[in-house]
Amino acid sequence: MTAMGGRSAMPSPGRLGLMEPSARGDLDTLGWSDTAAVDRLWALSRAPDPDLALKALVRIQQAQGDAGWAEIDRLLARDRRFRGRLLATLGSSDALGDHLVAETDAWRLLLEPALPTAAQARDEMLAAVAAQPEPDAGENLLYRAGVSGGEAIGALRVAYRNLLLRLAAQDLAPVVEDEPVLFLPEVGGHLSDLADAALTAALAVALREVLGDDRYTGRLAVIAMGKCGARELNYVSDVDVVFVAEPADNTSARLAGEMMRVGSLAFFEVDAALRPEGKRGAMTRTLESHLAYYERWAKTWEFQALLKARPMTGDLALGADYVAATGPLVWTAAERDDFVTDVQAMRRRVEALVPDGEKDRNLKLGGGGLRDVEFAVQLMQMVHGRADEALRVRSTLEAIDALIAGGYVGRTDGANFHASYEFLRGLEHRLQLQRLARTHLLPDVKDDPAMRWLARAAHVRPEGGSDATAVLRRELRRQRTRVRQLHEKLFYRPLLEAVTRFDKDSLYLQNEAAERQLAALGYAKPQRAVAHIKALGSARGRRGQIQMLILPGLLEHISDTPDPDAGLLNYRRLCDELVDADWFLRLLRDDGVVAERLMHVLGTSEYIADLLMRSPDVIALYSSGASGPKLCEVTSEDVVKGLAASVRRSADPRKAIAVARSHRRAELARIASADLLGLMDVTQVCRALSTMWAAVLDAALEKVMEATSKETGAPAPARMAVIGMGRLGGGELGYGSDADVLFVCDPVEGADESTALRWAQSVADSVRALLGTPSADPPLEVDVGLRPEGKNGPIVRSLASYRAYYRQWAEAWEVQALLRAHAVAGDPELGLQFLHMIDEVRYPAGGVSSDAVREIRRIKARVDAERLPRGADPTTHTKLGRGGLADVEWTVQLLQLRYAHEYPELHRTSTIETLDAIEEAGLLPEDQVAMLKDAWLTATRARNALVLVRGKPVDQLPGAGRELRAIAYAAGWPQDEAVEFLEHYLRVTRRAKGVVLEVFGG
Question: Where does the record place the region Disordered (predicted)?
Fold first, then answer.
């Protein structure tokens, strides 16, 4: 032996990876300080955590005594396989080290070359509690323990830990000659066998605890669910079970509950929450009762859980009957009306379970984690397993292989997916073995020692000059990125390539299977969807290549929307419209945010989709800028300036209005997109819509006045202003609102008043005609119905005429209408003069008379009785329904009429701003103001959502169904919470109606 250098030299603690200051002393304690121990030292250095292994060895030596340790040390010196198993186990698992210290004979289990079979494991567990089979048991794995209580639980815990020790040691051992290699599916299978054996013994103890020596005459089957049912269990995992009993009586329930208690104390958490009705349901049911529940009440996730159901212990014949009876139900779940929304809800629930700080560290629930794989694979099974029985397997890895074999997934993609799942599950096993704790959290990437331990425990090898820690970090990023694309890989790429025949060698998915897949993803007309996909993916040249690249991701985003059929159709229409715009597909390819947002919009809003067909440049604003979404970087004021400048450059009024329409169209698309994507709140939306309407009116008025003066060759004989009324005056326009206005003129000095009025009438008529010209855009309806004398009065009046009318003839409803009057276009000075003039009318000294209040209440009662459309539901009509917009606005306006003379802060045209002023003035309690505001905002948001979804003005919310889901989604609610959205609307408006009855009704 050489003194230095070679393998036989005595290595230093540092070279062995020992970092603890006490390491040298510990080596001396073990007698490993000379060259005779060099093989043991180098083996120790290969342990995942040499310090942890060394500390455990010292504790084992102390527990064994001199003679015992001498025997172990001799075996460590001469038996390479034993040495590898023991040191790998001690360096990987603190908990198994504790077990070897406490159970002084347990180390001998690591000498055995083969793992026990399922039957042998069961026999060992039963022997631990001296269990004997029940008489005439047959296939009924029913045993009665000879011991009970704490003695039984202690014995079971030791026996199970011994079995776990043998499996873990072989799993963790370094790969050496003659040492069997355990692959992930084998480990999961062995762990499931151990769980079966453990719960068979737990049931034996339960029989002793519940019945003593009395015979059990019933039948009880324990069904394994989840990972245990699929025989892919983790080292530390809840074991999900369901109980079937004949009869399902108190005795069977007590047996089931006691088995769960014993199992949870001795081995692992035993959970029966997957049973019908969950934790609220009966612990045991008959087979008939199970079937009745699944056929009538079960949700999609419950059928998904049945995918993995397996008879585990107890009466195996009854368990087999259960699986045979419930199995076919799984394959019809995808035909249910609520299948897609249930699936989307499950995905959201999974994502919501992960705290923000753990999303990157959670191997199970984080992005690109295990649940992503399992969810996607199970969904594919449920979709295609109806027609292909080869997919009816329990294990995730077996299912991936079956999907590859059936052509539902490409061979390369499937193999990569398989490998990523095995890699992540392997890391999960190592994390759980460390302390035998149920965990899925990776160490913090900055925690080098923890990452180094995990890399070594997972047999990650250094490469290319990088240490194992760097390799593990890199591999984690690669694997999770690959899994993060699982939906594209599993759902959309094969589907796309199937219908376009892009890669015949790797895929065999036919149109019929593609249609099934699309139907399961929410497409109501899958045949048409296949045609759209084929047309898009088969485009010639560069466009077709880009479409093939981006379509899988786009299809995924579209499938998450309320109406995938409309979304795909709208995308195809948009591509046809922009066939020569190379920037469009490049933008979708290069900016994933734009692609996701655009698909969200196209699958939700017909209103925005139609606007984007004619204003596609807005799509570029879907990307994110330096300070946030570009949709919000543009301001309404900037748009108004651009509109005015563009209109002034057009001499022809018709062309000028066409330019104004173009600006308005783009601005509507921007506002609606920002609204739907949650980037603007409802008051911002209403304000922006009102600003745009006012700008178009102002531009139209200016251009018509200019053109009229040119035609006559004389200057304008009058000034003109447009007064916004109703929602326009309040700055609260919705997508479907008309523009209520008054036209006011004032003759210039020296002009004849009748001539000025005729001229102003001509201008107003031209403005209304130009704006009302039929167009594909949302209509520009200018409504003058609130003018004095209504439909019988002149369209335009002079300022003096308005003053005379309002002072002498104004009725209560006309005074009320003036509360929302605001100058929006034309001569600003004239507009201000008009507002000062009507202030005397709408805010009269001393308030309005009691007769006027009675008249307003009478009119409101008549509106409620006569104006609600025939057949409309008064509880869900957003404008005229109970607690809807009209109720809130009339209540606010009555308070203004009664108190605005006393409280100047009530001199506002906005409903929301006025409510704030009412609260500040103390005219209503804070809670009542909050109810009115909540109702107004809720009804406005719902009304806007109706237009976004349907593409036209609508006031009535629909009942449950696809349309309600779309409207809820457009209003900012998850699709699967459409019913909750409607209940929220009803609750909020009902409360507001109570305030209205109290305040408005007096």
Answer: 1-20
